[in-house]
Structures are given as structure tokens and as C-alpha cells.
Amino acid sequence: MFGQLLKRLIEPQTEPLPDTDARLALGALLVRIAKSDHSYAVEEISRIDRILASRYNLNAVEAAKLRAHCEKVEHDAPDTVRFTRAIKDAVPYEDREAVVEALWDVALADGMRSDEENSILRMASSFLGVNDRDSALARQRVEAGRK
């Protein structure tokens, strides 16, 4: 299963990924954001599980299993560009800002904001077609929700 997804991420896309692969791509991107500062905190793992559960209507066990699959995909994937391309192809434009908000939610889950997280978030937002202003607004919504 993972090999097929990685193959589809590497090859040029002629059609959007199936929903299951899009889920794995989003989850793997969330994991990559969480790991980008070289710390994969419990708070980030918990936040990823909650995002996956909420977005895909999963219970806690199903979300944790999906995250575990996503961790394997993230580990084996060549780069972040493939994940964002897969998501951009599978997610309607109006929902991509919510994806960026989820990325910020994970990046800020441990209470710290690193240069690595900022960098990968800027790149991912851009590749998703979400401009800097909308990404900043998504970050502000996440920060406001934590107060």
C-alpha cells in the first residue's frame, strides 16, 4: 500500500489521488511539519490524531492507526512537494486554507515556533496555493483558539 502511494507521489499526476491516498498525504504532511524542528512532541502527535479524527470522522483508535501509517509514508517519502501536490490535486481550493490552519495547529501544538516549522509552512502554503496573508490569518485563528 505504501509503495503504491509513494510511486503515485513520485510519478507525474494525471488525475487526483484516491481519497485514502489523499488522507495519507495530508497526515504525512502533518507529521512532517511536526518533525521539522527535530522534535516530535506528544502534544503534536495528539493534535495530529485530533485533526485526522475530526477531518475524516474517525474514532481515536482509527485516527492513531492512520497517523501511524502516515508516519511510515512521511519517513519514506522523497520530499514535501509531493504531499502538497497530492493535497492540492485532491482538495478543493476553498478547503486548502483549512489544511494550512491544520498545519499551523500542529506546528504550534508544542507551544514553540521554530524557524524550520515557519519555513516548511511557508513552502507548503505556497505549494497549496494559499497566499502568505491567508496563511497568516490561519495562524492567527489557531493562536486565538489557544487563549
TrEMBL record:
SUPFAM superfamilies, per the entry: TerB-like
The membrane spanning regions, by residue number, are none
CDD domains hit by this protein: terB_like_2
- Looking at the record, the residues that make up the Co-chaperone DjlA N-terminal domain are 23-140
Q: What domain of life does the native source organism fall in?
A: Bacteria
Name the record gives this protein = TerB family tellurite resistance protein
Please report the organism this UniProt entry assigns to the protein.
Answer: Pseudohalocynthiibacter aestuariivivens
